[in-house]
Amino acid sequence: MFYNYIKIGWRNLMRQKVFSAINIVGMTVAFCVAFLLGIAAYFEWSYDQFHANKNSVVQVYTAERMADGSVQHNSSQAAPFGPTIEKECAAVQSSSRFGWDYESVSYKDNSLDLHITFVDPSFLSMFSFPVQEGDKNALQKPSQILITRKAADKLFHGESPIGKLVQINMNNHLQPFTIAGVMADVPRNSSIDFEVLCSFQNVIAALEDPNTWDNQAYQVFVQLRPHTTPAMLEQQMKAVVHRYRTNKLNSMKENGVTPGADGELLSMRTLPLAEMHFREESGAGGDINPFYPWMLLIMALLIVGTASINFINLSMGRSFTRAGEIGLRKALGAVRTQLIMQFWCEALIVCSIAFIGSLVLGAMMLPSFNRLFSYHLDFSILLNVKLISWTIVAFFFVTILAGGYPAWLIARTNLIEVLKGKMSLGKSSLLRNTLIIVQFVVAVLLISSTAVLWQQLNYLRTRPMGFDTAQVISIPVTGNVDASRVLARMQQRLDGNSHIISSTASFMNLGTGLAGGESTWKVGFDFNGHEAKTVWVPVEYDYLKTLGLRLVAGRDFSRSYGADSNTVIINQKLAASLDGGKDVIGQHFEFDGQQIQIIGIVKDFNFKSLRQGIGPLALKLTPSLQAAAVFVKVKPTDLPGAMATVEKAWKEVVPQGDFRGSFLNENVNRMYIAEARLATIIVCSAILAILISCMGLFAVAVLVIGQRNREIGIRKVMGASVSSIVTLLSAGFLKLVVIAIVIATPIAWYIMSTWLQHFAYRIQIQWWLFVLVGLAALIIAFFTISIQTIRTAFMNPVKSIKTA
Q1: Cβ atoms of residues 24 and 283 within 8 Å
Q2: Per-residue pLDDT tens digits for 557-575
């Protein structure tokens, strides 16, 4: 019986090729978009889920209360913190410290800049990063390292790396290490990344005081004992804070900091491994808004939903041409269930063809999708049993939604009316109107969200950062390249060049350069009996001049002062926190065993993204520093020529290194790739949703206007004008669009207002934006239905009355 339904359904679809093609194309595109967005959302949610101990491993971070009542979170901990809580907190089964850097790894004549991570031996038992070859206990010895398969292939070109001796730049000194094992490559959906694993004892050996609690520079992961909870660990860590951070707590009290709801000034909190990808507190992830994958999934559901509504409307419109068939079936004894099954099978055929077509189309579009949205997705993700199960369930739900209602509606029609060739789907149009409203709610919501998102993105890209972005070239420095020597040699080559104004170097790049994001180093120091905390940035001479920073007090670093290597220039934010900013110029404080003098105050500038506010900053003159970036300020007259000049000088000085220079405005734009990606997704979804909605609106217009042909003919005979008839026919549809606008506007405002709260600097949503979006939706809807209304208004009234 089911086979007969399929066979008859296929014949019906073949007889109505245009109708079938419209439905198949619409559903294919909707399924394809849902397929791509769905696997992207699934990929985001899959981060760190492959670890066997994902439910028992947590990251520890600090929640520090400030004098103004706010709370600052920091993932960095002191070197002794991990071993201490492992000994003193009963909830801790094991812990591992985590620190990383990009360093040059050399073997014979081959040298690569690799991502080196320093961990404790327990790291390998806590996390599921398998050692494929060699010694699984390699990290017990500081002189041994583990390397990933991909990095080994690049460094050894197919040779077995086991037992090979390599040189790694450690603290400006080459040290020999033996490769004791090869690990599987880190999965793309991992918040923790590395290419080389090295014992944390190498970090301890390089520290002047390994037992100090003042240097907060390393992340700490903890595996909980069975039957313990993160809350139990947080409670136990309170004693550790009070025992080892006494100076810090006393300083906070002196600075007027008041305890929080838990009675603590400084709290140690835990972050589940599964949340690292979405939480800024982790220091490893946090670039992705937790709502982002939900947004992808919602976009997918909305697109499929609007396509299903479109399918329903087209099926209802098509049913009038099948009145004879339906009547004959009923007259021959077909029951309602059989008619419903017949029409549902036709929907199943359409959706099945569309589903297969969407997979083919998705496979063709996946490379472009990856490039457009900076993903690395492939079809292997579809092998997940859970994902396959949900896809099958969703597919059958869509077929029932798209084909079930029209089938039920058609099957319940009156037999006598059908045999007369008159088939009415009922006077009640509540559901039909509701479907139209839902479609345009989706369209208006997406268009409104797109407008707000693009405004915010444009604001982020164009708002002054406080430093020169248009004329400054940023060149990342990695590996064992001596930045100070490179800077000096480049200055010699660029000196007197007509393109060049000045150059400098810094421990911190600005924005997201071609070698990665900006890096900051936060330190604490005692200032007149009060502890202060600031981002600490070693810089070279001419830093202020090159970046266009403005002094508001004091002076710049100068080669005329031999003692300037023990001086700092601070920003206004830090100055305000030091004795209220009064007379800080010339004052001293001790840091790292040196007496440091404050010689200047620079105007605040955004050294991090505009998602965050401006924090305290200290610029420390450090000649011969191991810089992260070299900055070159060029004249604006010929920017491409200036870039070529700088690249040529770089390659002469560093022939073995890659030139990855970019202008700072490009770095700034790259900080907002996630927002740009989201904007592109919503724009594409909005365009698709409005197109599908208009198709559905047109189908309903054909359906409703077709039922009113006799009325229109009578009105024309009675003297009604074409314009009055067009207005009459359009008013009902436009009223539905207005209702959709009224519903969608507050929803869009709430969603986008909530999203904007993630930015320290954000636009104010203007009322006129929603007015423009509403007018655009009305105009699009009017032109969609005007095609049919104008055609009907010009019809011969005699013909309309006779054939209606």
Answers
A1: no
A2: 888 776 677 888 988 888 8
Structure confidence by residue, pLDDT tens digits, 361-392 = 888 888 888 877 777 777 776 677 777 787 78
Handedness of CA 192, 193, 196, 202 (dihedral sign): negative
Q: How many CB atoms lie within 10 A of CB 87?
A: 10
| Cα–Cα distances in angstroms (integers) from residue 665 to residues 468, 471, 694, in the given order | 8, 9, 40
C-alpha–C-alpha distance, residues 524 and 536, integer Å:
9
Query: Look-up: residue for tokens 């909830």?
Result: 91
CA distance 337 to 320: 20
Beta carbons within 8 Å of 243's beta carbon, 6+ residues apart: none
Token code pair at residue 462 = 């164009």
Q: Is residue 599 within 8 Å of residue 564, measured between CB atoms? A: yes
Burial letters for 131-144: b for 16+ Cβ neighbours within 10 Å, e otherwise? bebbbbebbeebeb
- In the predicted structure, residue 428 carries a pLDDT above the cut 50: no
* 309 half-sphere exposure, CB direction, 13 A CA radius: 29
Q: Which value, to the nearest 10 degrees, does the dihedral of the CA atoms of residues 700, 704, 705, 709 take? A: 150
Could you tell me where the DSSP H helices lie in 323-384?
323-331, 336-373
Three-state secondary structure of 179-223:
EEEEECCCCCCCCCCCCEEEECHHHHHHCCCCCCCCCEEEEEEEE
Q: Alpha helices of 374-473 — where are they, by DSSP H?
A: 385-399, 405-411, 415-419, 430-462
Q: Rounded to whole angstroms, what are the CA distances from 527 to 117, 598, 693?
A: 34, 11, 64
Residues near 445 by beta carbon (within 8 Å), at least 6 away in sequence: 744, 747, 748, 751
Q: How far apart are CA 28 and CA 22, in angstroms?
A: 10
Q: Which residues pair with 170 in a beta bridge?
A: 173
Residue 69: strand, helix, or coil: coil
Structure tokens at 14: 């073949």
Strands, DSSP E only, in 120-172? 131-134, 144-148, 165-170
Place of tokens 């520290």: 207
Pairing verdict, β 500-506 and 629-634: antiparallel
